[in-house]
Amino acid sequence: MVKKSDQQKDKKKKAHKRGHGEGTIYQRPDGRWTAQATIGRDSEGKPKRVTYYGKTRPEVLEKLDKARAELKAGTFVANTKMSVSQWIATWLETYAKPRVRLSTFESYQALLTQHVTPVIGGIYLKDLRPEHLQKLVNQKLEYGRINKKGGLSARTVRYILALIGQVLKQALKEGLVNRNVADSVSKPKRKQHEIVPLTIDQTNSFLNAARDSRHFPAFLLEWATGLRRGELLGLRWKDVDLKKGAISVRQSLIRTKSQGLTFTEPKTKKSRRTIPIPQEALTELKAHKARQNQEKLLLGGETIDGVYVPNYKDNDLVFCRGDGLPMDPRGFTKAFDLILSKAGLPKVAFHDMRHGHATMLLLLGEHPKVVQERLGHSTITMTLDTYSHILPGLQEKASSKLSTVLDIKEKPSHQEG
């Protein structure tokens, strides 16, 4: 006599038996059928599987065959009800946060949650189409600002679209979509932003007006190096070689929503650089260091539990607050604006001092490659594209220089005999 438990085992074993290439097909205790198949591997190399349910074995086998055909054709999308907003949240935490700087992550997060999620976040990821993104682009250009008063710049919208492209590129790798629909969207035309930094005379007027300011050494070094604001305010004395007359960019000061003022590594490999500085800036740095040492002594300190604790919070910063703490970049920029006003100069952004440094060097005949290395641009193409507005004048100078070396003898005239 066959035991009932043995009959159940035989039935279960028969249910688990698979046809060739079918994947795993079995009947559940409730009578329904389940089919599972491996559709690839995730970023860690682990198998990714899909599961289908049905009332009969042929029903789940049909679903499995359809999935297998779509995989072969490259059109397979996992049967998921994940929305665009859900995938954006996953992408931010899983893929973006571990690989980019905190300030960059926060900018990604703000752009996606403020501009993308409210418009297309409710759409299922697998149902997202190019027209959804095209409408998003058009809307942002027309009235995309948070206050709805006007549209975003073409540059910002292009950046948002590129960010969506990254999000969907990862979704494609995960098998959540069968194509990156961002590739099919018409991008706003790139508008060349005309850079109009202070002229050499205006820069001299600015520096003279700033002569009595606490920030004069920082402004003078900016004129001499073209550092980014964060690089200037993150500069440490250990990164300054007063003997050789050079500074090295090794860190940057940034502000983040979650941590406030914090230090981070330079933006790119090219941003880590050493820049020789002119004698005027070197002399001022030496005097600045002497004054800073005096400030440390004047601040004094107090004895706590028998230990002397100085009031100066030494972060080894070249440019900082009077107590040694990092300087608020916004406050520093405000001081810059006040001196511009005092000197009667047009209002420009502090970043334009960086542009002024590059423009001045190019007009003085310096090779663009040298300018690229001083600025920390990733490629010389970026430098040339940024300062193309002054290249026509340089081309004319180059043409004139060619004439100075030309020495062609006059063609002799033929006499009739």
Write a short abstract of this structure.
It contains 15 helices and ten strands. With 417 residues, it is mostly helical. The longest helix is centred in the C-terminal third of the chain and has 21 residues, at 279-299.
Estimate percent helicity: 40-55%
**Domain module count:** 3
What is the CATH class designation of the largest domain?
Mainly Alpha
The general outline is extended
How would you write the strand order of the largest sheet? 1-2-3
Radius of gyration: 32 Å
Q: Decide which structural class fits the backbone.
A: mainly alpha
Biggest sheet descriptor = 3 strands, antiparallel
CATH-defined superfamily of the largest domain: Intergrase catalytic core
Query: At CATH's second level, what is the architecture of the largest domain?
Result: Orthogonal Bundle
Number of strands: 10
Q: What is the fold-level CATH name, i.e. the topology of the largest domain? A: hpI Integrase, Chain A
Which stretches of 5+ consecutive residues score pLDDT under 50? 11-22
Would you list the SSEs in sequence order as H and E? HEEEHHHHHHHHEEEEEHEEHHHHH
Beta-strand percentage range = 5-15%
Kindly, what is the distance between the CA atoms of the first and last residues, rounded to a whole number of angstroms? Answer: 137 Å
Average residue pLDDT: 86
Structure description:
The protein is mostly helical and 417 residues long. The protein folds into 3 domains: 52 residues; 101 residues, Tyrosine recombinase, N-terminal domain (DNA polymerase, domain 1, Orthogonal Bundle), CATH 1.10.150; 195 residues, hpI Integrase, Chain A. Strands 1-2-3 form a 3-stranded antiparallel sheet. Strands 4-5-8 form a 3-stranded antiparallel sheet, with no helix packed on it. It has a two-stranded antiparallel sheet with strand order 6-7. A hairpin with a 2-residue loop joins strand 9 and strand 10. Helix 3 runs antiparallel to helix 4, helix 4 packs across helix 5 and helix 8 packs across helix 12. About 3% of the residues have low confidence. InterPro entries: CB (IPR044068), DNA_brk_join_enz (IPR011010), Integrase-like_cat_sf (IPR013762), Integrase_catalytic (IPR002104), Integrase_recombinase_N (IPR010998), Integrase_SAM-like_N (IPR004107), Tyrosine_recombinase_XerCD (IPR050090). One of its GO terms (biological process) is DNA integration.
